Amino acid sequence: MSFIVAEIESQPDTWRRAAELAPTSVVAEALPQPGARVAVVGCGTSLFMAQSCAALRESADLGETDAFPASEFPHLRRYDHVVALTRSGTTTEVIQLLAALPNEQRSTVITTAATLPVAKHADATVALDFADERSVVVTRFATTALALWRAHLGEDLGPVIKDARTELAGHLADELVGREQFVFLGTGWTVGLANEAALKLREGSQTWTESYPAMEFRHGPISVVDQRSAVWIFGPTPAGLAEEITGTGGLVVHADIDPMAHLVSAQRLAVMIANRKGLDPDAPRHVARSIVLADP
Q: Which CATH number covers residue 257?
């Protein structure tokens, strides 16, 4: 069994541990308080989780919340709190961003160990050591960070964990695995999940993937959908969209479960396609566990 398979399957357990950790004083004091103006940053997968975190917090009316790639942070803006997500704790862009924040700027990093280099540049660290991974490809750290955030916002993760266990026990249809092009769509906080699902298939299995906000899909991207395509929708399906996709010959993929649990099946799909192509799903080509850049 590859590392990534075991890490994908462990997610219900790491989400449960995150839910137990969320109400502790360490986490409650480290994460943003209601009403604070917040920026959430990351790179790659962590950026997409940041997008989901920001949308969830703002939709809960807890304060203005934005998400940015660490390399594109708008330093002329002022936020009450900056939260950075990084599995490795060594990503150059994240470290440079935190080091450049003014002293009065509160910052927190969510990572896998309090001893990592990034922790030296943040006011607080939340260490999800139980969600670290051996695979280059990020799966459970990302979703566990999102689970922690959701629990911190007051969500009950019990039904989410149950949905994930059901997904893990299910079978991925051969019809889905045989498609050549995948489009992932989301709405609100699930746009970040759509972006992440597309990245998982792209890096893990070298598959042609795209991702969009669901209502944007009609504005041009639907033109490439045909019998080779699968269009995977996280969360609510806009009225009439499924019928339009079916009319192109594309396969519509949707499930009435929590979208974070549905992401688990997209992760599994990436591994299955990689295996069929003879690829190593733990070590995609040209991809490293952490991007550490030389000093300029």
A: 3.40.50.10490
Could you state, in chain order, the average pLDDT of each consecutive group of 10 residues for the chain (296 residues)?
93 98 97 98 98 98 98 96 96 96 95 97 98 96 98 98 97 90 98 98 94 96 95 96 96 97 98 93 77 71
Query: Which tokens belong to 37?
Result: 């103006």
Task: Tell me the CA distances in angstroms from 150 to 101, 104, 145, 249, 276, one per residue in order.
Answer: 26, 27, 9, 36, 35
How many domains does the chain fold into?
A: 2
Paired tokens of 19: 């839910």
Cα of 272 vs its chain's centroid, Å: 19
**Residue 184 corresponds to which amino acid?**
F
Distance CA 37, CA 58 (A): 10
**Using H for helix, E for strand and C for coil, what is the string for the chain?**
CCHHHHHHHCHHHHHHHHHHHCCCHHHHHHCCCCCCCEEEEECCHHHHHHHHHHHHHHHCCCCCEEEEEHHHCCCCCCCCEEEEECCCCCCHHHHHHHHHCCCCCEEEEEECCCCCHHHHHCCEEEECHHHCCCCCCCCHHHHHHHHHHHHHCCCCCHHHHHHHHHHHHCCCCHHHHCCCEEEEEECCCHHHHHHHHHHHHHHHHCCEEEEEEHHHCCCCHHHHCCCCEEEEECCCCCCCHHHHHHHCCCEEECCCCCHHHHHHHHHHHHHHHHHHCCCCCCCCCCCCCCCCCCCC
- The whole domain housing 131 covers 3-152
